[in-house]
TrEMBL record:
GO molecular-function terms, A-Z: dihydrofolate reductase activity; NADP+ binding
Domain DHFR per the UniProt entry, residue ranges: 1-160
Superkingdom classification of source: Bacteria
Chain ranges passing through the membrane: none
Pathway(s) the chain acts in: Cofactor biosynthesis; tetrahydrofolate biosynthesis; 5,6,7,8-tetrahydrofolate from 7,8-dihydrofolate: step 1/1
GO CC terms in record: cytosol
Protein role: Key enzyme in folate metabolism. Catalyzes an essential reaction for de novo glycine and purine synthesis, and for DNA precursor synthesis.
One example of a Gene Ontology biological process annotation: folic acid metabolic process
Name listed for the protein in its UniProt record: Dihydrofolate reductase
Amino acid sequence: MITLIAAAGENNELGKDNDLLWHLPDDFKRFKKITSHHFIIMGRKTFESFPNPLPNRVHIVITRDRKYGNVGAEVVHSLEEAIEKATSKKDIFVIGGGEIYKLAMDVADKIELTRVHGTFEDADTFFPEFSEDEWKLISEEKHGKDEKHKYAFTYETWVRK
């Protein structure tokens, strides 16, 4: 199963300058729980935004740079190559950025989307649009603002129809 996992604002905003636009500790915990012990596929910029590789996950980094290597992750040069590297009984999670999500949208089986209830005009990276004609919302869990979360958000799980 190939799952896109992301947190996006009301207008599909993902981030700015290779960083998130919000801090949602409960979403980080959920991301860790869902992706641990699985393959995570990402672009080079997303990988480089981490201070260290994320524990208990196999990192597969897609880059056009043929000289990019030995970085604590498997390095590939296409989405197809990334998926081939991830062949096992473990699930595959695509974790960004925007261009990688676009590439993976056609092959994804599921979307785990944290919809952040806010708009972020200075965003420079976006989650791709997707149609309810192709995707069905199967669960949602609302989370309000609180002392640790500046924005309300909803966990949404979508599956391909």
